[in-house]
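In response to the reviewer comment on reproducibility (Comment 2.3), we provide here a single inverse folding case reported in full, input and output, so that an independent group could reproduce the run without further information from us. The structure tokens appear first.
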């Protein structure tokens, strides 16, 4: 007996997200290979493929709508047309709206009974619901409070009566309408009082006072920051201009400058380890790299690569602007300092803990940090922010990043906690295909288990766990762990997919891959 599977058209608007949904729904459903990325192709695709089910994503599916009202009308018209042409098509809506939002009410009015309104959508739940018939109970919890519905309706009735009153000609007619308005107004007042009791609304005068105080505070802060924001904007524009104009030629191939941001889901998950691996892997192709360590966190790189032995006079370029916060001010003026530390073609901008205290933003502002990035003339700049996603110095630079790598170890709790932050998830989703989640210290078993599989539209890379003896040995020598041939062999294929996303394909083809990822460190004096 041949079982005909329901045919699904994915009109989500994002390829990675569509791939995830398709992967979860198959083989129980027949997902059409061709995805829909824009509203204008919906009806054409339905006519061509004749699906039984259409899955939309309100946020990702592109349209010509320029505001929310236009968007609502477009969705309403789209669903109406689908219903008129074929009322048997089941419509699924993935969205992220607050409970009771008018858009949800609109969908229910249009008889859309499969609405998954969550920040992180459980695709297993979607699959299970699609295997059953559409039911009103699945969306009943999304509607507005019934009292609020009545309030809206009563308000509309009062407005209609007011219009009738203005048009009334006789005294009797005006009296009748006034009486109806008074009656409806009393009903509305009663509803408001009930809602106040139900939800314990705070005193309106107190609310107004709080709002006024908040507005004054925000205005003051805005004026205070305005000058800095303008200056930061200028610096950011200069960085963008530098990226457009400064193109390096390597063995006849043009390499466009790129800014790479590396951050972790928590402390000690391996952002610095991954950043060093990445810098070395790029450097293997004779491309100059700038590695910028988080100046607000504990110093690591200087000691890791025997800085006192290889670069005893080195201090970071941050200290040029913050010489008064050093540990040994008197030494700074008595000795020749070096502000550049290079190993092959890797420029290290890291804090020397023997001469520099850990910086705070009052000493090293976000503007200072942006200027450091501007003055670093390397094609590739890697910024290691650790877990400081919310620090202003880094937030100001997110939109400059060409690639963002989110590093996680194999701890489900910290991973889930990081991606449960709605504001941070919104930020990463806005960067879309620039984001790559890197799982550090993975094993084959963990990788194959899909324990960390998510519904987010990001790329994923798995970095294998390195034997602790090899790590210890590399630290004893002041070398990168990939100087070990076996470790290098293990890491190379995992890093290669990342490198291919950063460097031009022609350069990768031309350059030899015989060298190890990072030679032994040697200091080049400025």
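Designed residues, in position order:
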């Amino acid at each position: 007996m041949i079982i005909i599977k329901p045919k699904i058209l994915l009109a989500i608007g994002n390829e990675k997200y569509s791939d995830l949904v398709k992967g979860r729904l198959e083989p129980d459903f027949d997902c059409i290979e061709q995805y829909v990325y824009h509203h204008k192709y919906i009806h054409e695709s339905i006519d061509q493929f004749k699906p039984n089910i259409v899955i939309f994503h309100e946020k990702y599916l592109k349209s010509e709508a320029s505001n929310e009202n236009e968007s609502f009308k477009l969705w309403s018209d789209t669903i109406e047309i689908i219903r008129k042409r074929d009322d048997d098509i089941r419509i699924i809506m993935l969205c992220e709206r607050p409970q009771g939002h008018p858009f949800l009410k609109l969908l229910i009015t249009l008889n859309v009974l499969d609405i998954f309104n969550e920040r992180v959508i459980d695709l297993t739940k979607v699959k299970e619901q699609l295997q059953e018939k559409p039911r009103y109970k699945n969306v009943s919890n999304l509607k507005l409070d019934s009292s609020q519905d009545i309030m809206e309706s009563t308000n509309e009735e009062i407005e209609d009566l007011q219009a009738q009153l203005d048009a009334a000609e006789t005294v009797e007619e005006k009296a009748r309408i006034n009486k109806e308005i008074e009656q409806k107004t009393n009903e509305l007042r009663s509803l408001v009082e009930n809602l106040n009791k139900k939800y314990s609304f705070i005193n309106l005068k107190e609310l107004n006072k709080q709002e006024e105080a908040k507005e004054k505070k925000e205005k003051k802060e805005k004026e205070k920051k305005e000058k800095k924001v303008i200056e930061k904007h200028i610096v950011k524009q200069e960085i963008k201009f530098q990226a457009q104009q400064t193109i390096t030629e390597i063995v006849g191939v043009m390499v466009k400058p790129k800014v790479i941001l590396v951050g972790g889901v928590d402390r000690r998950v391996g952002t610095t380890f991954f950043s060093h691996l990445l810098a070395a892997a790029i450097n293997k192709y004779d491309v100059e790299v700038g590695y910028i360590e988080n100046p607000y966190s504990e110093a690591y790189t200087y000691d890791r690569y025997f800085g006192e032995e290889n670069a005893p006079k080195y201090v970071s370029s941050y200290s040029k602007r913050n010489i008064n916060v050093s540990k040994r001010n008197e030494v700074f003026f008595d000795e020749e300092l070096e502000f550049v530390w290079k190993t092959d073609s890797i420029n290290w901008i890291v804090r020397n803990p023997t001469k520099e205290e850990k910086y705070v933003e009052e000493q090293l502002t976000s503007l200072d940090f942006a200027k450091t990035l501007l003055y670093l003339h390397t094609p590739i700049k890697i910024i290691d922010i650790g877990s400081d996603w919310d620090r202003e110095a880094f937030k100001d630079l997110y939109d400059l990043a060409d690639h963002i790598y989110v590093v996680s170890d194999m701890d489900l709790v910290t991973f889930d906690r990081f991606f449960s932050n709605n504001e941070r998830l919104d930020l990463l989703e806005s960067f879309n295909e620039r984001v790559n989640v890197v799982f550090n210290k993975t094993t084959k078993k963990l990788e194959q288990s899909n324990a960390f599989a998510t519904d987010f539209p990001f790329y994923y890379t798995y970095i294998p766990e390195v034997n602790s003896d090899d790590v210890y040995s590399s630290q004893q020598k002041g070398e990168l762990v990939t100087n070990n041939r076996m470790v290098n062999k293990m890491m190379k294929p995992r890093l290669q997919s990342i490198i291919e996303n950063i460097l031009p394909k022609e350069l990768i083809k031309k350059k030899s891959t015989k060298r190890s990822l990072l030679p032994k460190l040697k200091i080049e004096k400025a």
